[in-house]
Amino acid sequence: MTSAAFHVQQARHHLETGNAAQALADAEQGLAAHPRDHALHLVAAQGLMALGRFAEAATRLEGLTAATPETGEPWMRLGACRLHLGDTAGAVAALERGLAWAPESFIARLQLAEGLQGLGRTDDALVHFFRAVTSAQAKGRWLNEQTTAPDLRDRVRQAMAIIDAGRHALFFETIAPLIEQYGTADLQRVVQALEGYLGLRPAESPDPRQKPTFFHVPDLQPAPYFDRALFPWYAALEHAADAIRAELQQVLSARAGLQPFLDFSGGARKGDFLESTQDPDAAAWDAYFFYRHGEVFADHLAACPATAAALAQVPLTRIEGHAPEVLFSLLSPGTVIKPHHGVTNSRVVTHLPLIVPPDCALEVGGVEHAWTEGRCVTFDDTFLHAAWNRSDRLRVVMILDTWHPRLSEVEVRALKRLVETIGDFNARAGVA
Fold it and tell me: What sign results for the dihedral spanned by CA atoms 275, 276, 279, 281?
């Protein structure tokens, strides 16, 4: 008896060469001997679809999804069949089931977006159009005509047009009430920043050293470091430095709550960010967070009451799901943080140095700064910056972020709304 796998292979070969009738015949011949083989049922359904026999294919796929409900492809094929049959609601339901098991299937996601658009669910459709295109482009597809299959080109162009119009409307609607209340002139920089983010205007800084990876606000007088006079809250924070350092020593003694600052779950490697002047394996950048991505670490604040009281006097950046970011930053002996750029110049980064051995420094925009314990320094981390601890002892600074000091109150309100809206949209679309 010929194996089921042989018949599947033969059928797929004929599908790839455009002989759908022979592919279906191969699959049916295999099913005569192996009637319960799921792969044969799937390839038979593909043959029926290629022949335009969508009702028969849908019936076969409905049986297959009942037998294998946790497999993505049968659901997605069923969704495609239902679209051809005019059952848009049924197609959307099937595609959603399939994509739950195969979320990176960008063609199925494009079909889902088209189905949602047809049902009038335009907000949901926009999210899935965006995710379909970004997923495809991450794999080198849909970048241009050469990387887009001919039968998909018009659909991908339409998807991109919907994305451009939809994101523009969504994000500008977020700040429209403030523009109406305060006028365009007061929010010109925010409007220009959003236009740059959407690719409607250049988003480049006049200083080539400054390259935000996410969002650039123009005309903020770019400079690597900021004058102390711009931060009247320095005095209280520096006055509390000894008490903060004492609480840091308790944290270091207990070692509880420390975690790596960097997250490598997305496939990045430690060597991409850190190196060592001593043992490469010993390079380490650890953190004791008080806030991360806007989430409060209440137990850490409770364990460090003097630190918490000092932070309460600082005008921290507050953006739901994004900021503030406040931590004790621990750089192990010999560790070098490689040069990199931050995400946005709308906020600035302050270091309060707490434990600084010799031969430790920060470099921003090619300008080196040697930390002094208890003396704050604020810099724009969208400039290329690096840090190192070339000593044989631990270096610790407290890191916190605040809004750029040259932003007005209304600009801060607009940027907060805007970044939250962009973040929510990207999260729904599965985009980091």
Answer: negative
